Amino acid sequence: MDAHSSTKINARKRRKEAPGPNGATEEDGIPSKVQRCAVGLRQPAPFSDEIEVDLSKPCVRVTMEEARKRTPCERPVRVHADGIFDLFHSGHARPLMQAKNLFPNTYLIVGVCSFTVMNENERYDAVQHCHYVDEVVRNAPWTLTPEFLAEHRIDFVAHDDIPYSSAGSDDVYKHIKEAGMFAPTQRTEGISTSDIITRIVRDYDVYARRNLQRGYTAKELNVSFINEKKYHLQERVDKVKKKVKDVEEKSKEFVQKVEEKSIDLIQKWEEKSREFIGSFLEMFGPEGALKHMLKEGKGRMLQAISPKQSPSSSPTRERSPSLSF
């Protein structure tokens, strides 16, 4: 085997063993991604009407089996996902992530519908900057027609499996499912645009006061004159409450420090008291008093004798003459 062939085999082994996105491998059931020509990872995804399409090449749909196997790099599986994407949040991004990872080589087209709080350009911009997205369709239809699917060369449509009703239909994706083009994704529980709007409506006073503090006018927030004065009064009351709370906390800290200092002083006083009492008992107790008196008496006697005695003046007693017989 030559060196070139050996290098190619080793490269294939490395590609097979190398983990895909988030450390996933083919053994985990999540297909690893292959390198593709896309701009969504480094800059905003383009709009569909700004992309040049070579209409001379016929578009042949890939089957589900072919899509799961890994199509060539130049022929990614074209998956379409649509939504309103108002107040873009993680509940929007996660289904797009699922759609992007449906197949090893996926080109994700996202249709943005109307009826929102945010205007269209704001929503387009939010979806464009989601790095799972490769292409954005402006003013996408609520119901996907065969003409729309053919125009954008869509292989599969990704969406959650909950039926969405429309005029004359109980499920706008029914014909997509019947054609075998539907790829279900999971909804993100706990967050939705309706939930976010409900929070804002529920806590409207809090958000209104916060934005008034940030410099927004009552007119911009659609706040009446009376409510504006009420919010300002509440703000002043809250400031007073905060000051009182701060004073209380500082007072508690001061009292705690005084208590700690008092305990320390009492402990030191007790220690000194024990030392004083011990010394007193040692000196003036029954045994201590006798020792003290003897010690004091002996000291006084020595003091009385010592000044009278000297080597030169010390008295000498004459010896009596001895009688001789």
TrEMBL record:
Residues 316-325 have a biased composition (Basic and acidic residues). One of its GO terms (cellular component) is endoplasmic reticulum. Pathway: Phospholipid metabolism; phosphatidylcholine biosynthesis; phosphatidylcholine from phosphocholine: step 1/2; Lipid metabolism. InterPro entries: CCT, Cyt_trans-like, Pcy1-like, Rossmann-like_a/b/a_fold. It comes from the Eukaryota. Residues 1-31, 300-325 are annotated as: Disordered. Its EC number is 2.7.7.15. It holds the Pfam family CTP_transf_like. Keywords: Coiled coil, Lipid biosynthesis, Lipid metabolism, Nucleotidyltransferase, Phospholipid biosynthesis, Phospholipid metabolism, Transferase. GO terms for molecular function: choline-phosphate cytidylyltransferase activity; phosphatidylcholine binding. Belongs to the cytidylyltransferase family. Catalyzes the key rate-limiting step in the CDP-choline pathway for phosphatidylcholine biosynthesis. This is choline-phosphate cytidylyltransferase. The lineage of its organism: Eukaryota, Metazoa, Chordata, Craniata, Vertebrata. The gene is LOC109730683.
